[in-house]
Amino acid sequence: MKIAVYPGSFDPVTNGHVDIIERAASIFGKVYVAVIENPEKKANFDFATRMRMIKGAARHFRNVRVESFKGLLIDYAKKRKARAIIRGLRAVSDFEYEFQMAQTNRKMCPNIETIFFMTDSRYAYLSSSLVRQISKLGGPVRGMVPDNVLNELKQKENDGK
Ligand code: PNS
């Protein structure tokens, strides 16, 4: 069985992420969605909330498991016996950062391949940071995030008021 990991901060998970999870799960026997516990950039949603949101969004995929990881991604990927790291690519602007990460991970662990999924055009301009910004300013985010995340975003805005 081919195993993949799909890492990220998922701050919060968007419908673009869920689309990639679904597509990866249709190709790999098992997909571990790996939520980084302490991202480089400070997360807006705390770790427990990010986990709850993505677990809720991915619960209907039979061969997907949501986990957390700390430290190096390749150490986690090796532990899970993954053959591939999945990342989504949207615009050209994603490329440089993704290329650097893929090359570095490849250097550290040549037998784990980074595989990029081209975004579906519906989500080409969607990002967690845009969702957070729109939600903060009271704009509509329905259709951008899974329904369980809508509730969490509302809750966060109410807490902030
Ligand atoms: O959703 P993000 O924030 O773009 O995800 C970035 C992530 C978590 C995949 C990346 O920061 C990562 O892998 N961090 C773990 C530390 C690590 O392995 N660094 C070396 C990779 S170049």
Q: Count of helices?
A: 6
Count every beta strand, where a strand is a DSSP E run of 2 or more residues.
5
CATH fold name: Rossmann fold
> What kind of sheet is the major sheet?
5 strands, parallel
Q: Structural class, from secondary structure content?
A: alpha/beta
Instruction: Output the radius of gyration.
Output: 15 Å
Order of helices and strands: EHEHEHEHEHH
The top-level CATH class is: Alpha Beta
Q: Which outline best applies?
A: globular
Give the count of structural domains: 1
What percent strand? Answer: 15-25%
Low-confidence region ranges: none
What distance lies between the first and last C-alpha atoms, to the nearest angstrom?
49 Å
Mean pLDDT: 96
* The CATH fourth-level homologous superfamily: HUPs
Bound compounds: 4'-phosphopantetheine
**How are the strands of the biggest sheet laid out side by side?**
3-2-1-4-5
Under the CATH scheme, the architecture is: 3-Layer(aba) Sandwich
Helix content estimate = 40-55%
